Automatic annotation (TrEMBL):
It comes from Paenibacillus albus. This is AraC family transcriptional regulator. Keywords: DNA-binding, Transcription, Transcription regulation. GO terms for molecular function: DNA-binding transcription factor activity; sequence-specific DNA binding. It comes from the Bacteria. PROSITE patterns: HTH_ARAC_FAMILY_2 (PS01124). PANTHER family: ARAC-FAMILY TRANSCRIPTIONAL REGULATOR, HTH-TYPE TRANSCRIPTIONAL ACTIVATOR RHAS.
């Protein structure tokens, strides 16, 4: 089952929640392009949902996330009484999904990249990737049920702080989903991926060879790439290129440096290769990208 990756901050944002019960023969409604993620948490019985030509049977103690830009339908009606919570949420940042041809990224229209506040790294926020399983068996289902119930109880309260409280509960809930997909082996690979990502962020201006990475972390680059893909949705080479492109984009906006100088400064030895990778990532070449933010 594929995972869904969210660039945070900002964290996915809670919208609304409810609960429902289906009986024998009932079917979950078919929808297309709902515009929000639909998290289904089954407490009794089973839901049978197809999305992207994949059948997913979510029974008691399971959670399923339906994507906002896809179509889904019931491939098998309920064969017993089925109860579940539903939670709609949205990503105000970038999210991605894995396909047969690679990873597809979906930036939200209001998303803005984080820009450094100063040269002091201690003052700057850094984004990271939150990985949620599209379908999983909950490690602590009762704990998740209780949080879903708290979201519902708050819905009827008009106080101004309710939305903030719901958001904090929702963040705890999605972290439980994240934990449900993790094993001890996963946790070790994630720790390695985070260390490698930090190393890339500190050394992206320099030449980063596989031999150098291997010597630094004492792991084969193939294994490191697998850990990076698990944690960030991209292998080691893709992560290095992505980070360099993001730093180049900031320099294009904030400075008047020549494109060739920027390419060299962020670690690209070949200007044409830099322009090609930048255009692929941003949809326009470096010059046009800079013009978009010029006054």
């Amino acid at each position: 089952m594929m995972d869904i990756f969210f660039t945070t901050p900002p964290f996915p944002c809670f919208m609304c929640a409810g609960e429902d019960t289906y009986y024998f023969g009932d079917r979950h409604p078919a929808r297309a392009n709902l515009g929000a993620f639909d998290l289904l948490i089954v407490t009794k019985g089973a839901l049978y949902i197809n999305e992207d030509n994949r059948d997913m049977a979510a029974s008691e103690g399971h959670a399923l996330i339906l994507k906002p830009n896809k179509a889904h339908y019931t491939y098998h009606s309920c064969d017993e009484e089925t109860s579940f919570y539903w939670i709609h949420f949205q990503s105000l940042g970038v999210w991605s999904e894995q396909t047969a041809s690679g990873y597809i990224y979906y930036p939200h229209s209001s998303y803005q990249e984080l820009e450094p506040l100063s040269n002091d790294e201690r003052l700057n926020m850094r984004s990271s990737m939150l990985r949620l399983p599209q379908f999983c068996k909950l490690v602590q289902p009762q704990k998740v049920y209780e949080m879903a119930e708290q979201l519902l109880e708050l819905t009827s309260q008009p106080q101004s702080w309710v939305r903030w409280k719901q958001q904090t509960i929702f963040q705890s809930l999605i972290l439980e989903l994240h934990a449900s997909a993790e094993s001890e082996k996963d946790a070790a690979s994630l720790r390695l991926a985070e260390k490698v990502a930090e190393y890339v962020r500190q050394n992206y201006r320099n030449s980063l060879s596989y031999a150098q990475i291997r010597e630094t972390f004492s792991f084969h680059p193939t294994y490191i790439s697998r850990c990076m893909k698990h944690a960030y949705g991209m292998n080691l080479t893709e992560y290095i290129i992505m980070y360099r492109i993001e730093q180049a984009a900031l320099l294009l906006i904030k400075t008047d440096l020549a494109v060739s100088h920027i390419a060299e400064q962020v670690g690209f030895a070949n200007l044409s290769y830099f322009a090609r990778r930048f255009s692929k990532a941003k949809g326009v070449n470096p010059g046009k990208y800079r013009k978009q933010y010029s006054f």
